[in-house]
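Milestone M4 deliverable, item 7.
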Amino acid sequence: MATLHLNTEQVITLVKQLAIPEQRMILQAIKAEQDTWWQNRLDQGELQMRSLSTTYGLNWDIMTEQEREEFIDNILHEKQ
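Output delivered:
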């Protein structure tokens, strides 16, 4: 199978040549990929916050949203 190398502008031009339903399918596929990436980042960040809170003797899972926000705020200002 041959590989076609296209730059961004060429890809955009090709997508614009498609009918609207096909363009929508492409956008939905890109959005799904983006959503997966974002969820992975959120999950990773939450794991890091759990670990960090443990080093401060706190339990992330039983903290209220307000306590979590205060903890994060304290961490951010601690480094300055």
